[in-house]
Amino acid sequence: MSNHAVGVVGAGYVGLTTAACVASFGRRVTCVDSDAAKVDALNRAEVTIDEPGLQSLVAQGLADRRLRFTTELPAVAGCSRIFLCLPTPKGDHGGADLRAVESVLAQLTGLLRHGSVLVTKSTVPVGTAERLERAIARSDVRVVSNPEFLREGSAVHDFLHPERIVIGASDPAAADTVAELYDHLQAPVVTTGPSSAELAKYASNAFLAMKVSYANLLAELCERLGADIGDVTRTMGLDSRIGPAFLAPGPGWGGSCLPKDTAALLHTARGAGAECSLVRDTVEVNSRQRSRMVAKVRFAVTGSPTGSLRGVRLGLLGLTFKAGTADLRDSPALAVAEQLAEAGAVLTGYDPAVPPSRTDRVGEVRTVDDPYLVAKGAAGIVLLTEWPHFRELDWAQMAAVAEQPVLVDTRNLLDAQALSDAGIHRVGVGTP
Ligand code: UGA
């Protein structure tokens, strides 16, 4: 096994997870980030990203002197493998903005040691590895695509127990250099050309988005036809060719990845002259789903599809884009909240991961630290994120403090009978 140190550029959610996990494999890892305050905190083992297991891996890596953090980009130039874990946000026209990657590359190129391999870990447009290799213009330096498939809330677990490892390289020796890092993990390694690896990442995220949009489309159909989405998706999910995951209806998919990656795939397809209407519809269904939730709330609270929400007090349960994370980026909960606010509703919200000590407002929502305060005086409660502990709330108490005991459960999380027993009129998604 090679002893050569590994470099990681970027200490965000992907970079920090990569650095801490690779250090746990026994490698020496240098992780560089331009944010000096973050680097200082990380060197004290203070991790602000809320990922199970991450803080202890960072602390262990620091204690074993295998992991270090620095703001000095040249500190990674001597490493044999350098992971690029930089943000690639949605740029103009839906394509990914690669400026962070390009700037780092421009600074590193002349400093890289002979034979080093740059590894793109964060999601980058198809063709990036080949483009970067051309930009570096050094025959001794290779760029390999090794996309991450980490879910927020279980990133460390996903890194240590991957379902597949994809290594996209034009040079077999460079592919081996990267594969060697993972050789003790029990996972199939798919070795491909760089473009296939890059596309496989977009293809996976777009497919997940498509599955959820399909479930949301079926939920709408269920409401019109008097069927139950839970029964329909349970039946579908038992077919091993379909599988049960990503069939839960809700307020639409969100987060920092699926929206960005579907947009980027559409952008890439357009650039390649390909028709990608299936993905376009996936995005379109998602945006309609948010408006559908607003219409549901309007009807449940006012009793009319055109009833006014002006000045109506609504309580929101959940603000993050899914349970198990504090991430509010591209949260469907906030998209629904924004439309409710536009309609004139006055919003109070509670989320266990967003305490008011962090902020007393999230967009249009005044945040409180107690779910019962959300119900107090509300003409309706809207559950937007599937935090399991919402099931344990005292619903009779929620009903007692509400002005009107009406609840729209956009995640179908709560037991309809329990709510009915508590005197609450519950409206779900895709149920008759
Ligand atoms: C997603 C992918 O699942 C990861 O494999 C990928 O590595 C990651 O993006 C990335 O590109 O970095 P993540 O953004 O953490 O991970 O979120 P997901 O768990 O995929 O959830 C995305 C959205 O879909 C959430 O808003 C969630 O509530 C929604 N969803 C998910 C549903 O509405 N229904 C479902 O059945 C499943």
Task: Give a description of the structure.
- The structure is a single chain.
- It is globular and about 70 Å long.
- The longest helix has 32 residues, at 194-225.
- It is of the alpha/beta class.
- It starts with 5 loop residues before the first strand and ends in a 5-residue tail after the last strand.
- 47% of the residues are buried.
- The protein contains 15 helices and 15 strands.
- The strands form three sheets. The protein has a seven-stranded mixed β-sheet. Strands 3-2-1-4-5-6 form a six-stranded parallel β-sheet. Strands 7-8 form a two-stranded parallel ribbon.
The tally of strands reads 15
Rg, nearest Å: 24 Å
Based on helices, strands and strand pairing, what is the structural class? alpha/beta
Share of helical residues = 40-55%
Which residues form runs of ≥5 with pLDDT under 50?
Answer: none
Helical segment tally?
15
Ligand list: uridine-5'-diphosphate-glucuronic acid
Shape verdict: globular
Mind summarizing the main beta sheet? 7 strands, mixed
From the N-terminal CA to the C-terminal CA, the straight-line distance is 60 Å
Q: SSE order, as H and E?
A: EHEHHEEHEHEHEHEHHHHEHEEEHEHEHE
Q: Beta fraction of the residues?
A: 5-15%
